[in-house]
Design the sequence.
């Protein structure tokens, strides 16, 4: 059967995507035609490590103020060079015991629905990390010229709430959602007694 124009190109892209490595610990991962290497990073000094793209770096304070104008912005923000894919972390003072992750997720989900009335909830889940677990939910929010995909996550770190988010443009969601969940699975903590 003869393929015409776009059909052949689409089939080629599909084959490349299906044959691509999808395990962030197994080498480079193909994202939008580009190989991205992942490595483990120390996110919170002496407390928290996570695998994320090697090319990600901390977002400057100036850009953080522009991108997250609310004074209650995340404590730590990693981003790609284009600042279109972000991973954020905040270690709060609020107490959170292990096992309460799903309860805080439900509470935060309701807050997002109230504050972002045009948000579209998608899914929720819980991942078992190397130590402990992280509860997450994802949703879409409209921005000025596109929709933004967000995956918020929650865990207990040394008895206090760890919360964060992974976000990207809606156009990149298909590539990044699975990678974000894999990144959560690599979270590693150092407990107080070590």
Sequence:
């Amino acid at each position: 059967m003869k393929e015409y124009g776009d059909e052949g190109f689409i089939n080629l892209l599909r084959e490349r995507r299906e044959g691509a490595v999808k395990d962030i610990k197994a080498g480079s991962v193909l994202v939008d035609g580009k190989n991205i290497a992942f490595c483990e990073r120390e996110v919170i000094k002496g407390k928290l490590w996570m695998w994320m793209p090697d090319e990600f770096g901390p977002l400057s304070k100036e850009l953080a103020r522009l991108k997250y104008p609310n004074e209650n912005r995340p404590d730590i923000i990693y981003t790609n060079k284009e600042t279109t894919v972000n991973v954020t972390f905040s270690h709060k003072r609020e107490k959170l015991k292990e096992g309460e992750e799903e309860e805080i997720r439900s509470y935060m989900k309701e807050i997002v629905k109230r504050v972002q009335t045009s948000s579209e909830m998608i899914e929720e889940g819980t991942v078992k990390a190397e130590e402990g677990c992280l509860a997450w939910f994802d949703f879409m929010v409209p921005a000025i010229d596109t929709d933004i995909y967000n995956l918020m996550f929650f865990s207990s770190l040394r008895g206090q709430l760890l919360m964060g988010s992974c976000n990207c443009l809606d156009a990149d969601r298909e590539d990044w959602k699975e990678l974000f969940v894999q990144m959560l699975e690599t979270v590693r903590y150092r407990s107080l007694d070590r």
